[in-house]
Design brief:
It catalyses: 1-(2-carboxyphenylamino)-1-deoxy-D-ribulose 5-phosphate + H(+) = (1S,2R)-1-C-(indol-3-yl)glycerol 3-phosphate + CO2 + H2O. Its EC number is 4.1.1.48. InterPro entries: Aldolase_TIM, Indole-3-glycerol_P_synth, Indole-3-glycerol_P_synth_dom, Indole-3-GlycerolPSynthase_CS, RibuloseP-bd_barrel. This is Indole-3-glycerol phosphate synthase. GO terms for molecular function: indole-3-glycerol-phosphate synthase activity; phosphoribosylanthranilate isomerase activity. This protein is of the alpha/beta class. The chain has a single domain, classed as Alpha-Beta Barrel (TIM Barrel), CATH 3.20.20.70. Helix content is about 40%, strand content about 15%. It is built from eleven helices and ten strands. Helix 6 links the parallel strand 6 and strand 7. Helix 3 crosses helix 4. The protein binds ligand LARABZUK. The ligand O=C(O)c1ccccc1NCC(=O)[C@H](O)[C@H](O)COP(=O)(O)O binds next to strand 10 and helix 10.
Length: about 260
């Protein structure tokens, strides 16, 4: 059966063919460095990666009426540690223009949230102002994951390596990843459960990597649950994009770290 992740990757292969005909190469070396890892090391609270996400395959349109710069400013003022920007157009209605608008507005590290399968996409993310890229283990062969991880870190980018189960986590840890994202959403079935973070947390912590719990966080209780499992950070999209009182929703999520949460 073809899953949504398969369809997204097929789309990325087509986009890659177009990218191959463009001349994109701007290494990150000269750029001002904005580091999520530094922020995680210093934070006394759970760190929040706030996402700019107009739409998604599981939820359809979430909020297409807010400007990226406006949303990003509120994220920064509310205390976000980084901002994630969905740049995929076909499935999430995002764009690299959104990423540029966010980077120009805030001083925070920017995560390019896309489905990366080739170094050219890393060049492209970097050229548009990303500080962090996402690599999804479920979307990549192990050899490709290692190649892309090394390529991105050589450019000075930080890499959030995303997993959803134990086998993927073992593969992710072989790269030496310092930032592990545990996605509570199964990207093949859309099922969301915070138990995924609870199950994988101990192995992430043991590796010395920072643990970011991603998806399905809607309330203080949800944040409390993943924090108690040992999460250093959370990645939140829908709850912020849909909030009628973003500052309040945000502050409800800002909990102190538990003892020993730092790797
Ligand atoms: O969100 C989806 O429907 C989705 C479907 C297929 C691949 C990826 C998808 N989402 C990416 C994410 O992981 C989330 O945007 C992110 O973790 C925030 O999740 P949420 O807070 O639940 O919006």
């Amino acid at each position: 059966m073809t899953t949504i992740l398969d369809r997204i990757i097929e789309q990325k292969k087509q986009e890659l063919a177009l990218l191959q005909n463009q001349s994109v190469f701007y290494p990150a070396i000269d750029r001002e460095k904005r580091s999520l890892l530094d922020k995680l090391q210093k934070s006394q609270q759970i760190s929040i990666i706030a996402e700019f996400k107009r739409a998604s395959p599981s939820k359809g349109m979430i909020n297409n009426g807010v400007e990226p710069a406006v949303q990003a400013s509120i994220y920064e003022q509310s205390g976000a540690s980084a901002i994630s920007v969905l740049t995929d157009q076909t499935f999430f209605k995002g764009s690299f223009e959104d990423l540029i608008a966010v980077r120009e507005t805030v001083q925070l590290p920017i995560l390019c949230k896309d489905f990366i399968i080739d170094p050219l996409q890393i060049n492209n993310a970097c050229a548009h102002g990303a500080d962090i890229i996402l690599l999804i283990v479920a979307a990549l062969e192990e050899k490709k994951l290692t190649e892309l991880y090394q390529y991105a870190t050589n450019l000075g980018l930080e890499v959030l390596v995303e997993v959803h189960n134990q086998a993927e986590l073992e593969t992710a840890l072989k790269t030496g990843a310092k930032l592990i994202g545990v996605n509570n959403r199964d990207l093949k079935t859309f099922q969301v459960s915070l138990e995924v973070t609870e199950k994988l947390a101990a192995a992430v912590k043991q590796s010395g990597a920072f643990l970011i719990s991603e998806s399905g966080l809607h309330s203080q209780e949800d944040v409390n649950r993943v924090r108690n499992a040992g999460a250093n950070g959370i990645l939140v999209g829908e709850a912020f994009m849909k909030s009628a009182n973003l500052k309040k929703t945000f502050s409800d999520f800002q909990l102190p770290l538990i003892e020993g949460a730092r790797p």
